[in-house]
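User: I've been going back and forth on whether these two constructs are worth ordering. Before I decide, could you fold them both?

Assistant: Sure. I'll take them in the order you sent them. The first construct and its C-alpha cells:
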Amino acid sequence: MKKYLLSLLMILTLLFITCGNEPPEEFYEGTPEDSTDIHNLLDQNPELLVTDDMFEATYITVNLDPVQFFVADSYYRTTDTIVKIHVDSCGLNLTERNDVLDFWFAKDTTCTVYLYDTFSVMSLMHYDEKQTGYYFWGGDTHIGLDTVLIDSTGGYDEQMVAGNGYRHIFFDWDETNGWQLKRISYGTYNFPAAGTDIPIADKVMLTFSDGTQDSIIRSSYDTLYTGHVMNRFRSIDSLINVPAGETLGVELTLAFGQVVDTMCVFYASCGGTNRVELEDGAGSLIVTGSGVTNLYFESVVKNSYYYVVPEEDYKAQVWLIPVRIQ
C-alpha cells in the first residue's frame, strides 16, 4: 500500500511540474511546396549543380618518369610477364553521371540539400613506348626479371573509372521573401572511393597576378577560422573572386598519409577547359568563363598510367572549388 501511495504521489508531482508547459517544438519536415520552391531556386542557379565539367576528353601532355621494373613488381604479377607503358598525354571522358538531391529540413526552418554524384569515366591515354618484362623462377622462392622487350611504336589505351562524391547547398526561410539560397560547400570527389590508398589533398594555394594569395584547406577545427575550408559551408556571396582571363599560380599539397606527392601526378582545370598538368603540384591556370565557375584540382596516383598487365586501378581525388568570375 505504501508503494502504491508513493507511486501515486510521484505521478501527481510530475503532473504538477509539467502542467502549463508547452509541448516541445516538432521537428520541421518540410512540405511539397517547400521542396518545389527550393527546386525552383536551384533551377535559377544551375551553375551550382554542375560537377561533371571536370572531365575533359582533350588529350594534354603529361610528364611521367621513364618506365622502370621494381622488385615489388614480381610480388603481385599474375603471369610470367608484366606489361608497362609510358604515357605522354591523357584525357578523361565522362560516360555517365548520376546525381541525387537529398533534402534535409531542420526545426530552425532551414534546409540542407546534399548533392550526391556518381560517375563512370574513361581514362584516356596515349603512350609512346610499351615495355614487357619477362620473369623466371630463380629457385623455390625467388622470382627474377629475365629480359625486357621495348616497343616504341606507340598507341592508345583506356581504362574505365568509377568515382563518387558530394557537396552541400544551404537554404534559409525568410518570412518576407520565402526560401533563400545562403551558403554552399566545396566538393570532394574520390576515385574509386575514399580510402587510405588514394591521394588526400590538404591545401591548394592560389596566387593572383597582383601578388595576393588565397588558400583552401582540407579541414579546420577552429570555429573562428574564416578562410576557405573544404568541408564547411561558405556564404554564396563570399566565393573567391577571380578576374576573367586571370592566370592563377597554383600550388597543391597532399596531407600526410599512405600516398605521398612523389607517387602522384597533378592537374588543374577551369570549368571543363584549360586542363593542365601541375608539375610536382605547382603550375599556372588560365581562368575563363563568367559568373560562378568551378576550378578543379586533381591528384592521381601515377601507377594507373604505367601498368597494363596487371592493370592498376585508377586512384585519384578531385577538389571542386566554385569561384566567381568578375
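The second construct, handled the same way:
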Amino acid sequence: MFGKLFSKISLFFFSEVSKILAPRFKDLSKTLAFTNIEEDIQTYLSNILFFSFIIGAILEILIIFVLVKLNILFSLFTFILTIVVSVTFAILVFIILYKYPQYIVVSNKKKIEEELERSVKHLSVLQDSSLTVKDILFLLQKIDHNQLLTEQSKKIIAMSDLNNNLKETLKYICDNTYSEQEYSFFSKLIEVLDKKSKLVDIINEYLISTEQTRKEKEEQQRSKITLLFEINIFLFFLIFILVFSVFLMPVSKESIKGILFAVAIIFPIIEFILVVILNK
C-alpha cells in the first residue's frame, strides 16, 4: 500500500514501537488478511505511524509559519497550543489509516452480500429439484455483476476438485469468511450435502432472513444519520462563533490565542465523538 521504500524507512524509525503495539491490535492482523494490502501488521503499523508523524510535523511547521507571518508573539503557551493541534490531527490521521483496512473489509462485505441477495433471488426462480450444490456454484458465476461471488465460487470448485471433498471445502470457506450472510448461505449448502435440507427451502429461508436484516440495518443507518446531522449542526455553530469573534471583535494577539486554545480543546472532543461513531 505504501511502497517498499516507504515501508523500509518507516520500519527503521518505528519497528520497535510497532512491535509493542502489534499485540494490542490483534484484530488488525485478521482484517489485513481479508484485504489486498500485502503488509503484515508490524509493517502496516510502522507505515501509518510514520505517515501520521510526517503529517503532524508538516502541520506544526505550517502553523508556526502562519503565526510568524501574522506577527503573533511566539511564546511557550502558543508553542504548546500548536503542538496540541498538530498532535491531535496526527492522531486523527492514524485512526483513519488504522480503520482503512476495516473499511475495505466492510465494503467487500457489503458488496458480496448484495451479490448474494441478488443471486439468490435469481435462484429462487428456478424450481428444478435436480439441481445440486455444485450446480448452484456454477450458476453463481453466470449471474451478471457477480465479481466477488464469482471469485469465491471458482475458489470453492477448484479446491473441491483438488481434495474431492466439497463439504470440507465449504466448511473452510465458512470458517474464513468476513460476511455473516455468506457464512449462513454456504453453511446451509453443507446441510443440503448432508441431506438435512433442500435447496428450495434454504433459498426461501435466506430471502426471508436477508429481508429482515435489511430492515434492521436501515433503522440503524437512520439513527446514525440523525446523530451525524446533530454533530454537523454543532460544528456549523462552532465555526460561526469563531468567525464572528474574529471579524466583529477587535483582533488582538490575546483573542487569537483564545481562539487557538478553544480549537485545541474542542477539536479532541469532536475527534472522540467521531471515533465513537466509526466504531458503531
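Notes on the second construct follow. DSSP finds ten helices and no strands in the chain. The chain has a mean pLDDT of 79.
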